[in-house]
Each structure stands twice: as C-alpha cells, then as structure tokens.
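User: Modeling request: complex.
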Amino acid sequence: GENVEQHPSTLSVQEGDSAVIKCTYSDSASNYFPWYKQELGKGPQLIIDIRSNVGEKKDQRIAVTLNKTAKHFSLHITETQPEDSAVYFCAARIYGNNRLAFGKGNQVVVIP
Amino acid sequence: DVKVTQSSRYLVKRTGEKVFLECVQDMDHENMFWYRQDPGLGLRLIYFSYDVKMKEKGDIPEGYSVSREKKERFSLILESASTNQTSMYLCASGGIDGTSRNYNEQFFGPGTRLTVL
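Assistant: Request completed. Predicted assembly structure:
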C-alpha cells in the first residue's frame, strides 16, 4: 500500500515568515494529494489539495507543489500568522482507491 | 456546509465494556471512515464503508467492528474495551465527484476522546 512520510515533525516560525512542510509518497499510482489542518480540539479540515496532472496550486497564503518524478509534495504557507499554528497532515490516494494514506502530521508553531 | 457529527466529544468507559461510537453525515456520501489518532502516530484507519452494509478493514481493525445500516450513519463498536483503546476517534465521510468520478475530499467530524479505565 501507499506510504506517506512527513517532515519535519515540528516547525517553529516567526510570525510573518514562511513555513514549508514536505511529504514523500511511495506509490507512483497516487494521483490525489490533500493537506489537512487540525486545530486544537477539532477534526482535521481540508485546506488545499492537488491532483497529479497539476504541478502547483495556490490559494491566498497557502500553496502546494508536486514533484511526481521525485514523489514528493510540499505545503507552503507565506506571511504566517498566529492562527496558522496547528497540526498539518498530508495524504495521498492511489487512483481508483477510496482510501487516503496519511502522514504522521507536523506541529507548526507561529511565534508572535 | 457538509456536516459530520459524532455522538460524544468525551467518553469514559471501563475495561470490558461494550462501547458504541456513532457518526452521522448529512451529505449523502457513499464512503465513511473511522480513524484513531494517537500522538506521534498520525491518523490510522480502522475500518471504512463504501456503501450500506458494506465494510472493509483498514490498517488496525483488531478489537473493533463496524455497522452501516443506513447511508448516513456509521458506527464503531468496541466489543470489549481495553486500556490500549484509549484514544481520539475520528469519523470522516467522502463522496465521488459526479463529473470526473474521482473520489473527493474526506470531511471529518470533531472527534470523540475515549478513555478506558
């Protein structure tokens, strides 16, 4: 099955700086890569996703890039704010499969 | 807005008790999932269901069973709770894109924090 690795496990950034979280996946048949944000006391919520026919996708201060050759994808958060502090999960789904394989999560801390 | 609700936010049970965790979604999604979340281990899939009365084992099904009698409801059952089942349990649902027939995002509930004493 698909295996997703997520690095680093914890990331601290100064408010206003950028944060980057990288994930690698193992199965080249994966074609859908979502990112979820989990705030304290809540369930994970989708913040951005990308399909394998696209190399980059942006939504305001967040962007995701995908490198299919290297089998990795990254979440970029620019101009970080305290409300960006959360746990972020990456995931991958193999084409035709309805399961997601999740990474172990990153704790992002934005220091005011 | 999609809503996934879970029957309890916090639950305390005793070892050996039978525990039911209920999940309801209001988006007519085909797929429903149960995960457990533990520090350092991320989200691990216990069971999922792609249709009424259909179920498939996930990565850690031992000690759990599920029931899906209606499309909107997916129940997780701990037949005989044990202390190592103390965890956060998350339910999710997801549909199929009508145009592309791709599976779409999963929507999560708020979670149930279960403590087994």
